[in-house]
Amino acid sequence: MTNAIPFGEILEAADRLSQDEQRELIAILNHRLAQTMRQRVAAEIQEARQELAEGRCLPVSPDDLMCEILK
Asked: What is the pTM of this model?
């Protein structure tokens, strides 16, 4: 971000909020983080499906996958 507010300033501003406002801010940020994570997972799933459709990967059993991970 080019116009990002320094993190310290954000913390100072949050300290000036009431406890109820701070709780609401936390709830909003948690909701936004969860949404971002859902979007990231959805994009990764779409990418994996595309790779499978293009033949760039093959289905494997869970046991085979675990063996590969533990190598």
From this structure: 0.68
> Can you give the chain as a three-state secondary structure string?
CCCCCCHHHHHHHHHCCCHHHHHHHHHHHHHHHHHHHHHHHHHHHHHHHHHHHCCCCCCCCHHHHHHHHCC
The whole-angstrom separation of Cα 57 and Cα 30 is 35
Distance CA 18, CA 40 (A): 33
Are residues 25 and 14 in contact, defined by beta-carbon separation less than 8 angstroms? yes
User: Tell me, what DSSP letter sits at residue 16?
Assistant: T
HSE of 57 in the Cβ direction (CA atoms, 13 Å)?
Answer: 10
| 13-34 confidence digits (pLDDT tens) | 999 999 999 999 999 999 999 9
- Token pair of 70, please? 């533990």
